[in-house]
Design brief:
With 216 residues, this protein is an alpha+beta fold. It folds into two domains: 2-146 and 203-212, Aminopeptidase; 147-189, no CATH class. 19% of the residues lie in helices and 40% in strands. The chain contains four helices and eleven strands, in the order E-H-E-E-H-E-H-E-H-E-E-E-E-E-E. The chain has helices spanning 11-22, 68-73, 99-113, 127-135; strands spanning 2-5, 43-53, 56-66, 82-90, 118-124, 139-151, 158-162, 167-171, 177-178, 185-189, 198-212. The chain has an eight-stranded mixed β-sheet. The mean pLDDT is 93. Keywords: Acyltransferase, Transferase. InterPro entries: Acyl_CoA_acyltransferase, Bact_Acetyltransf, GNAT_dom. Residues 1-164 form the N-acetyltransferase domain. It comes from Streptococcus oriscaviae.
Length: 216
């Protein structure tokens, strides 16, 4: 197993590894077909490491470092130099073998060399990953819930077809025309008690951790 810096030729393997890792994870909506470029107007540096086994990318970790202006303005973890945990993925066949830990150790050293004071980690539910972030010194600063479903008080909508216009037609119980029909959606809910307002198809808890490198 080799832990090394990401290279341009790794992109295809990077995409495959992330896709397989996220396939059955709570990050159901994170599907990338290419490695995103660094947003130069927001960040000024990217930490990027991969794990390679027999020429295959089996693990990856990306952390983007905000420029000075955005570091100081970042709501979750303002500091002189703040970083954002962008990607962490391990191929399903190699999970549970310490790859995430090995990747993070390399990244942490580089973050310290870059003068990073705080690292923000956005994640979702999952005992293994959340244990890792806590192990790395992450302190939970915020949580919410991601709901796939519809609010219970959504007005009833009649679904029809206007054949003369060749288009769909929606109306409420009184027959009044409506411009759209909300069939399903994804809602960000701040308080657990508010979940009662929804007919829920699925729900995922979102969590944000902050690692303070000035304290550890």
């Amino acid at each position: 197993m080799i832990i090394r810096k990401y290279q341009v030729g790794d992109e295809k393997g990077w995409v495959y590894c992330k896709a397989l890792s996220y396939l059955f994870s709570p990050f159901f909506d994170d599907r990338e077909t290419e490695k995103p470029a660094l947003l130069a107007d927001v960040y000024d540096y990217r930490v990027e490491w991969v794990a390679e086994q027999d020429g295959e990318i089996v693990g990856l970790l990306d952390i983007d470092i905000y420029n000075q202006e955005n570091s100081q303005a970042y709501l979750y973890a303002p500091s002189k130099r703040t970083a954002y945990f962008t990607n962490l993925a391990v191929h399903p066949d190699f999970q549970g073998q310490g790859l995430a830990q090995a990747l993070y150790e390399k990244a942490e050293q580089e973050l310290r060399e870059q003068g990073v004071e705080k690292l923000a980690i956005f994640t979702r539910e999952g005992a293994v990953t959340n244990h890792l972030y806590q192990k790395w010194g992450g302190q939970l600063v915020c949580s919410d819930y991601l709901v796939v479903g519809v609010p219970k008080d959504t007005p009833y909508v009649r679904f029809g077809i206007d054949l003369d216009k060749g288009q769909l037609a929606f109306s409420d119980e009184s027959g009044r025309n409506l411009p759209y029909y909300l069939r399903e959606g994804v809602y960000v809910v701040s308080e657990k008690s508010s979940l009662e307002l929804f007919d829920i198809e699925s729900v995922y808890q979102e969590l944000t951790y902050v690692v303070d490198f000035t304290a550890i």
